[in-house]
Amino acid sequence: MIQLFVPLNFLGFIYREIREALTNIERLFGLLGEPQKVADAPDAEPLRLTGGSVSFSQVRHAYHSERTILHDVSFDIPAGQTLAVVGPSGAGKSTLARLLFRFYDVDGGSIRIDGQDLRAVTQDSLRRAIGVVPQDTVLFNDTIGYNIAYGSPGASQDDIWRVLRLAQLEDFVRRLPEGLETQVGERGLKLSGGEKQRIAIARVLLKDPPILILDEATSSLDSHAERLILDALNVVARKRTTLAIAHRLSTIVHAERILVLDQGRVVEQGSHAELLAAGGAYSRLWADQQRDDTHAQ
Ligand code: ATP
């Protein structure tokens, strides 16, 4: 009996770990309670990465058939470059990220990575190729070290300190009496939104994926916290193909290209300077933001 009890107990432990990890990923995209809708095709093959270019071609998506959220959205992100997506609340920005991570399949058009349709590759290989820095990072009730290394078995303490440094967290963690062993989460140290996001950045740096989804925080941070985040984001986006969802326009600072989405349609695409000169939707969003920032000071 005892012999049987021990493995079952262990299985229970593994089950809880897996459940917790899945919950974390689902929360990244606000998907808790949503049934998973995609499955590997019977002949799905692992994604073959040759650089990590991303291409959306005439993508259409509806969460419910009566309401189309994205209409014929097309864009390319060359390998290693950043595309920032801006637009009003509800325009469909986060939906682009969910489709790239293949939480849903497109209802029309296609999404390709290095020329391969997402529906033809295994979900496991796809998700290993993509790192996500979500708006609201959910941490495990465990140590800081565990929270950084959980997606990267085999990471050494030196590796963890290296990514903490790049994510602008090294000084913060060195000042904690228990350092990497500090418990965080509900029963431990409470971290600010900005600190949690930098933990997510450190986690992605350790995973080192070629493709990155950044979902910029919507809540306002003070200017010092924002500077730390932007510096860390600059490091993490360097040399990675990045889809940056900019709810507040600050992510665009390091974007090669900007896409303006409105009611699920691409209304403008170009560089910051081109779009300002065009005097259209982007320049109005920019002017609104400048005015809000001035009022906030
Ligand atoms: P914000 O800047 O406010 O985060 P967004 O541009 O990222 O907005 P999305 O989250 O992509 O917008 O949502 C686009 C539209 O899709 C919204 O009208 C939203 O209500 C709807 N939507 C989002 N998720 C779901 C879902 N799981 N089921 C049904 N509708 C959804």
TrEMBL record:
ABC transporter domain segment(s): 54-288
Segments spanning the bilayer are 1-15
Where is this protein found? Cell membrane
Superkingdom per UniProt: Bacteria
**Name of the protein in question:** ATP-binding cassette, subfamily B
Q: Organism source for this protein?
A: Halopseudomonas xinjiangensis
* Portion of the full sequence shown: 300 to 596 of 596
